């Protein structure tokens, strides 16, 4: 027991660096480096642009590896995701396998699973970049995968068994539930990216659909509290948390453009946005605590990727923007003093978390600088403080955009020449503009507009 405890401590505690642990870490890093080098080489040698067996799976695995190894949003990954989407469309994955003769039940099920994953990755990366997604719901009729155990079918299966109930926690259930939730979130993302104005009733309809999608999550995947999840596996807990974070992110995306409009409904949207942002920062704090050595989620800490951190970045920027915007001439748009104090306390706690990752993340460093501005001057706002915070968070600026381009020589390798966002200093600001600022600007008479929205059908 003593030896087992010592081994576990050396394996979990980053402060204990025995020669054996250091050697194992070096070997793992060498494996990762080799993996990242060989995948694009194999793809190029295999003429991946022509499609073929396992091409999409390889690209998805490569993209996933880059996401988890990147501390910040990288436009190169999003562009590679675009190539993957185009290739999947070319190979017919957007059409249900029932349209293709000769496919075995196993192959059909695998195609559905691959397409569901591509749709999810497309939306996640597009949201991270603050840009419209590439796959639209009207372009595809591929059905969702079946809820089955891996032992329920194989390549020799002649007829697929019926899908299990949603109460049966299979390895694929989380992906199914998330895909259903992301379907509704996809509509919301399309809605927010639409340049046409819509009446506020459409926002309310979308909000109702989002709430309904959350209520439809099976009980086995619903989040309650960390105390109630004490007997769940770390992977199971992380799945519940991620479902929560994407839900609250969607709430912000749907309502953020109505936060400060001079309309009766803006107060409701503002409250929804602020409460959702606070919930996201609560999850940020919980993950920060529970992914420490010897805590319940330590083994799952790698799942807190740049995609997850982007949700926390969005929440932080929204709260900072609110505190800055609610001062001075627009003080009448402020919430209660106690609510503002809650926001301040949450941002102070978030500042400490961002500070810990600022050495490895450019985005974290930007957040730390902005929070220092907001937390230090929120009680004495000035044009300079608002401007400085706006520059850090990418709020509308009068500075002209940069037109400097270059090509990436890092991460994804020379096999995939792409624009390097690190060499485009104003690109991050432009992307943040799309994240922080409204994607559409309702006109003064938008409430009088007639007609139905395509998103409410």
Automatic annotation (TrEMBL):
Pfam families according to UniProt: Fungal_trans
GO molecular function: DNA binding; zinc ion binding
Biological process terms in GO annotation: DNA-templated transcription
CDD domains per record: fungal_TF_MHR
Keywords tagged on the record: Nucleus
Family matches, as InterPro entries: Sec_Metabolite_Reg, XnlR_reg_dom
Domain Xylanolytic transcriptional activator regulatory as annotated: residue spans: 77-151
Protein name as annotated: Xylanolytic transcriptional activator regulatory domain-containing protein
Recorded superkingdom: Eukaryota
Compartment(s) of residence: Nucleus
SMART domains: Fungal_trans (SM00906)
Organism for this UniProt entry: Fusarium equiseti (Fusarium scirpi)
Keyword field contains Transport: no
GO cellular component, as recorded: nucleus
